[in-house]
Request: fold
Amino acid sequence: MREGLESVRVVLVGTTHPGNIGSAARAMKTMGLRRLVLVDPQRFPSAEATALAAGADDLLTRAQIFSSLEEAIADCVWVVGTSARSRGQSVPLLPPQPAANALLGHVAGGPVALVFGRESSGLSNDELDRCNAFVQIPTDPDFRSLNLAAAVQVMAYACRMAALDEGEEQPIEEGYDPPATQEEMEALFEHYLRVLIQIEFVDAERPRHIMRRLRHLYQRKGMTASEVRILRGILTHTERGGGRRSARP
Ligand code: SAH
Reply:
């Protein structure tokens, strides 16, 4: 079995029913996933969550809680969002197994996350925009929405299958350029927006569309930390009005 399941973080955003948190923990533990992260749960801790965890309550005890998705995934190098609906995104929409393979393929670079949305409304567009790829579990098109914990089970199983597939593990070589973390990517996008407004490429009042396209462009394949530094060097240089070499990183 390949290493890596312990690096996969399952992030549940805005869960309403504590029973779903417990069932999700159970689903994770059966497949060897251990890191549960909750973003703004409505009711937690809860006896209902513990009951439905059915022996996976150690995951609940160790669950980390954050108030935003941004904080929950700041140190992650690859983030896969799940959605019952396709939302016309320009980020790849993958079936479960390729998404899980890609997730496990990134664990050498740092923590990775699988993100699940609210029972009522799923993930917001802003939250989906923070993901490198999306998964839609191919259900009956007339009845697409799985129960949250059932979706966690399908994805946890796909992760286990990816880990069981011994596959090629890339050795970390000297001079290895680590993937950028979400925090570094967010700092890049903030910098980008500032400069695009300064050079009047976007309207400060309505920058959203172009920023979403740029996010998707840069997140699709993932960037390394040094690539982010190069782009930020160019942005800093642009901010200062160009000139010769003064702002090279
Ligand atoms: N009404 C919501 C459904 C939310 S179901 C919506 O339309 O988005 C709660 C969560 O379970 C979703 O946010 C997603 O994380 C997961 N989920 C449910 N069905 C899924 C599917 N077919 N593929 C991927 N994730 C799914």
User: Anything to note?
Assistant: Strands lie at 8-13, 35-39, 64-66, 78-82, 93-94, 112-116, 133-135. The first strand starts at residue 8 and ends at 13. The chain has two domains: 2-166, 182-239. The chain has a mean pLDDT of 91.
